[in-house]
Amino acid sequence: MSEHRYTTYYLDMHCPSQLRGKPMVEDLAIVECRIKQYRFNRFLYQLVGAPWAWTDKLSWSDAQWQALVEQPGHRTWVAYHQGAIAGYYELLRDAEGEVEILYFGLVDSFVGRGFGGPLLTHALQSAWAWAGTRRVWVHTCTLDHPSALANYQARGLRLYREELCDEPAD
Predict the structure, then answer these.
(1) How far apart are CA 128 and CA 131, in angstroms?
(2) Which Pfam families match (predicted)?
(3) What mean pLDDT is reported for the chain?
(4) Which of 8, 117, 141, 155 is the most buried (most CB within 10 A)?
């Protein structure tokens, strides 16, 4: 079995003044899912993640999804354009006030339409609006969309670690 190498990038932000926002685009509505539905999160994960080989949670049971989504520190927002799901993000906050952008992405048919920057701006603003937040962080990798790392950095997130990883080939 051969190995494929990729790089994982870890980025963070320590205060809201570091945010370099991108204005919201017309006809993009971002709504928080205030009623937690773990099956909806599984659907969003598959819808957005399929083109980027998000596979780490494909084998998860209902109980695993439910445990993730229904914990008090987990929140989900969905972006809609003309009634269609354009993308989403999930935030996961720990007891120390560190908020991870757990998942973030656009549906493949909405990539390249100028939604990524405004959606990420919204995610960062939502994380900082959460009372007690001390740090916001995210990770991405070279298997993700080629513009992902640049978008994170353009919004003010700073690279603090890189890891070279091996992935078994299928």
Answers:
(1) 7
(2) Acetyltransf_1
(3) 92
(4) 155
